[in-house]
Automatic annotation (TrEMBL):
Residues 169-312 form the GGDEF domain. Residues 321-584 form the EAL domain. NCBIfam families: GGDEF. InterPro entries: Cyclic-di-GMP_PDE-like, EAL_dom, EAL_sf, GGDEF_dom, Nucleotide_cyclase, Rev_trsase/Diguanyl_cyclase. SMART domains: EAL, GGDEF. GO terms for molecular function: cyclic-guanylate-specific phosphodiesterase activity. Transmembrane segments: none annotated. It comes from marine sediment metagenome. This is Uncharacterized protein. PROSITE patterns: EAL, GGDEF. PANTHER family: CYCLIC DI-GMP PHOSPHODIESTERASE PDEF, SIGNALING PROTEIN YKOW.
Amino acid sequence: MTTSNDAYESLLQFMYRAPIGLVQTSLDGDIEMINPKSAQLLMPFSQDGSLDNLYTLLQDSAPTLRQLAADADPASGIICESLRISLHPEAAPSPSSPILSLSMLRLVDDLLLAVFVDVTLEVQHEQQVLSRKLSEAERVDKLTGLPTRVAALELLQTALDRPATDTRYGCALLYISCNRFKLINDALGYNIGNQLLSLIAGRLGSTLRSRRRDGEVMDGLPLTARIGGDEFAVMLDDLLVPENVTGVAQRILDRLGRPYAIGPHKIYCSVSMGIVVQNRDSGNASDLLQDASLAMEDAKRAGDSRYAIFEPGMRASARQRRSVEDDLQLALAKNQLFVVYQPVVGLQGEQYIDGAIDPCAGMEALVRWQHPVRGVVSPVEFIGIAEECGMIDAIGEFVLDTACRQFMTWQALLGPRAPRKLAVNLSREQLSHPGLAGIVDGILRSSGMPASCLQLEVTESLAAQSGSVLTRLHELKALGLTLALDDFGTGYSSLSSLHQIPVDTVKIDRSFVRYGDTSLHHRILIDATIRVAHSLGMDTVAEGIETFAQAEIVRQLGCDKGQGYLYSKPVVAADFASWLTDTTVASKS
């Protein structure tokens, strides 16, 4: 029969030989019994070589241990389970730093048992697995399954480091960006956007693979990668003929520009592309990718579904654009932007006798920039940059708010001689803003301006773009304002589709008006535009009138209003008021 002494002796032998650390302590953490394995595991944590109190010993590595013991549920007896402790908890684990797993429970009212297991190797293995997974995630895009930017740069650098031969020219890099992808995300949601990116990736791959099926000589194996949100890259390796690149580029543009069917949606998403053909002077993958990106931006500014081949001068242009962007940030902060006004005059009615005009028909508000060094900067030089860098919304709100308040000032000061209509342009980015109608309504309310006196102008190419733009236009019209189709004749719409766009005014582009008095062809186009617009209940404005002959032709053809240097250049508010007063007096005399 086994005595209690024998059992106790067996327990001591087990604790002494156990491959895990066992420590018995009092409620205050004083160590009453410790086996050799615990002493081995805990000695690195002792600063003075003593193993007297467990809480003191692990104060730096497990500072909450004492409180855990005090708060433990007496019914379960469990204080902690598998608590990871390390010698330097704030530092990254190193091979020489032990990592222990601590489980602790209450044996009886005044005794605690701590169990220590060395998990250093286990943690190192976990870190290796995690590192491998992160490396794989860094190299493979989860959404499309394509190589990522990191992987693409590595493969591109490998190609660039390859020794040049007499029979091979090098490689080409195609940088592809989706046009207005953000609009699709905003209108249809991120789930549809992700599905579209997957379809684009698949179509891009099939387009490149089809080169062999279509009988085209493939110079090398193409690499396709997703290098950003809606941006892709294609590397064509071992080019025999550099000119082959443009053929591949055009094929990609054509195929990616076809509609995508996602559920009930038929989505069009064109792309822009920048091309760099690597020659023997190139050698850095990151620089090559940056050059291709610059070319892509150049293609995007030129219009949809285009490619541009990189030229060294694009780097200087990019630096210049960056400089303008930085200065424009300061311009907004330091009130360097201001508004000028160009008259819109009436061409019809009794007041036109002997060439007199109605000077109160309206005015168009235009933004200018008073640069501290360059002087007055035309919007042609900075509006595109403002759109790209996200400042156009702030500029647009500034112009609208300033012009509305100025309009109301003129109403109070000039009475019946004040202009009857204010025209303000909308940019591409403003039209993509879901809250645009709310912003406009807020400005109308704060300025006190009647909505019926405001005309917002959108270019023909923008108005014909997508259903989301048409939705935004209808939201604006619901406020009670009017809409104008600017630069008509230069965009994508036609006279036959004019009725589909919810506008009240058609502005005939200056390129037609310029030759209206000398070219029968242009005169016929102006006449047709005016007739169709009037049949739809729209009025018309001829832009860019510079001579009396041009003004007389568009008036005879029935154009309602005119605008151009013949009447006045865009002027500041004070000069506009003077022009208005002088012209009104002249018209009556």
